[in-house]
Amino acid sequence: MLTVSLLAKSFGPTPVLNDISLDLPTGQVLAVLGRSGCGKTTLLKILAGLETPDRGDVRMDGQSVLSVPPERRQVVYLYQEPLLFPHLNVFENVAFGLRIRHVDAATIDQQVDAMLNDLELSDQARKQPNQLSGGQRQRVSFGRALIIRPRLLLLDEPFGNLDAQTRATMQELFGRVAKQYAMTALFVTHDTREALTIGTRFGYLDRGVMTTYDSVADFVADPRTGVHTELAFWESVQTRAV
């Protein structure tokens, strides 16, 4: 569904993205591991239409979208901060995208109720954002994004501000909902375990250069990802415990 070809971007004399190419089929989640300053946010902004590349192309379903304005790309970009509407309750935050598309009230009620149930938020429907936990606010943000069925979902370390337990819960929930709704998504993170938990495909972004992998084994075997080192650490801990 998404094809990125030789994408490059510099800010002044500093190159940020260097001829990035990748393919992402419909219904797949590409987990991209990358440290701070690797260029991941710039990549997501270009895909969302918020930045213009110096060269290269971005295609969705075979058509270039570089000249398509952000609001017409059917792409949703989620940050660490949920950015909910503070004056709307949970139900109305999720319903917002349907209301501005003039969907009839009965359909809105049915679709929002179903989405809140899938996100385990049915009992929070009438609460305001300031009455929710961090994980609940992030779930509302997902619901608002998914309810309009975007072609592509872009996630910029969305669980980075959550505590470890809530983060693990959100990873599990995201994986379940992504599969249920056949989401096509690009999820960037600096956490190796999160990448392995979230992704169906994997990439590594380092100083503007993207490496994609044919299998999980190839991703784990690349020493730059740090996955093999982490596995070795936990194996040594288990050995000492025995």
TrEMBL record:
Key word Ion transport present: yes
An example Gene Ontology molecular-function term: ATP binding
Family matches, as Pfam families: ABC_tran
Record's protein name: Putrescine transport system ATP-binding protein
InterPro entries: AAA+_ATPase, ABC_SmlMolc_Importer, ABC_transporter-like_ATP-bd, ABC_transporter-like_CS, ABC_transpr_FbpC, P-loop_NTPase
ABC transporter domain residues: 2-232
Keyword annotations from UniProtKB, A to Z: ATP-binding, Cell membrane, Ion transport, Iron, Iron transport, Membrane, Nucleotide-binding, Transport
The organism's place on the tree of life at top rank: Bacteria
